[in-house]
Amino acid sequence: MLNYIRKIVQYRELLYFLFVREVKSKYKQTVLGVAWSLLQPLSLMIVFTVVFSLFARLPSDGVPYALFSYCALVPWQFFAGVLGRGAGSLLSNQVLVQKVYFPRELIPLAVVGSAVVDFAVGVVLFVALLWYYGIALGAVTFLVLPVFLIQCLFVVGLIFLLAPMNVFYRDIGFIIPVAIQLLMFATPIIYPLSIVPERFRPYYILNPMAGIIEGYRRVLIHQSMPDWSSLAIAAFISTVLFALGLLYFKRVEFKLADVL
Description:
Blueprint: H1 2-10, H2 12-26, H3 36-55, H4 65-86, H5 89-92, H6 94-99, H7 106-132, H8 144-168, H9 172-185, H10 201-204, H11 208-220, H12 228-252, H13 256-259
């Protein structure tokens, strides 16, 4: 792993170039530009608040539903954005992959970097919502950093698996949008984790995003410690997935140019 990290550092300028190109291409010829990364979770927050709070009357752990849902939507958009663009990143860069050698994983890593920019833009509005609803940030807020790192480990591991698999099996590109939609309802975004029956909860938290979303809410909204057990499960699964994803990526790396 140390040798791998050292090799990535050697190609840091190429990684930066791919990152900048990814950010520019995402919002090329758009009027609002990076503001779209703010409007997407904001529009969903408004719809969810009207439908699930005013009509369906879903609970929100005693906090305003707009804040409750937006706190989950920002990291969810980060997750969905990385999967949506990352899985097809090798295909969209096939000319680059075929003509010159470099660590191919730099391409999906650049997608993750561009998604972090969108995530940061979404956080700005979230901080404004915290101020509007009178929720002060304290020392426990810094615990959001390990939650974010666990999520990054999870999404990077996923795209290390899915990006090369999408090269060999193009069905992956059709499965991912459906899987993202289904997984959204298996994650506590529109409802709190507390309404999941106790007997199902041990299986429910096997979804790493469940523990991650709940961690964001506890740390940022409730200013309390995260649920360490569910977060530990998410961290374990994410670490294993990252190791398997990296192993698979490096194993098939030199076959990608031939298949593309």
